[in-house]
Hints:
Helices cover 26% and strands 27% of the residues. By secondary structure, the protein is an alpha/beta fold. It has one domain (3-195): Rossmann fold. The strands form two sheets. Strands 5-4-3-6-7-8-9 form a seven-stranded mixed beta sheet. A two-stranded antiparallel sheet has the order 1-2. Strand 4 (98-103), helix 5 (106-118) and strand 5 form a beta-alpha-beta unit. Helix 2 (17-24) crosses helix 4 (84-93). The N and C termini lie far apart (40 Å). The model has no long low-confidence stretch (mean pLDDT 93).
Amino acid sequence: MEPGKRLLDGMRGRINESVLKAMARVPRDRFVPAQLRDRAYEDLPLPIGFGQTISAPHMVAIMCDLLDVRPGMKILEVGGGSGYHAAVLAALAGPEGQVFSVERMPDLALAARKNLQAAGIAGVTVVEGDGSLGLPEHAPYDRISVAASAPRVPEPLKEQLRVGGKLILPVGETSQELVLVTRKNGFAVEEKMGVIFVPLIGKEGFGERQI
């Protein structure tokens, strides 16, 4: 059995089938450094350089599952990294959907664009910038996914979320919680599980300091 299929089969029954199908269409080995490609389908986070990581496949699956992405949605991703999570979101949103991925490190943003192109993934626009401020020029978004831990839910991201939209992100410093925010008349916040992510660096994150 192929490693990728074995990995996804292990999540069956816990993760929505649409998410597993989307992940099956995205070759994770295209989004990890060449020297780690033989480990691409291990269910672990892997280093991608610059102190950053590509999230473990099960965490990508859980976040996408909780977001309930539908075809045609406009999605903002914060913390683009190597481009893998954005690729899965694009597979879920389909050809009519749009994914805007913000990455603060120029070298990673460039690498993500190359990875997405090499993997044949369309529908993702990688933007260099401070993701903690969102990307107001393309707001509002149906879904927002943040792959770095913030001290609190950033106000700009809440403001850029469409009514009825959902935002998922880890919150906390030494102890982090994966939080799902749904915009209704106000904002409903649900804590889902304890997690470990790299810090969100930016004006609405942990500033420019490294923790």
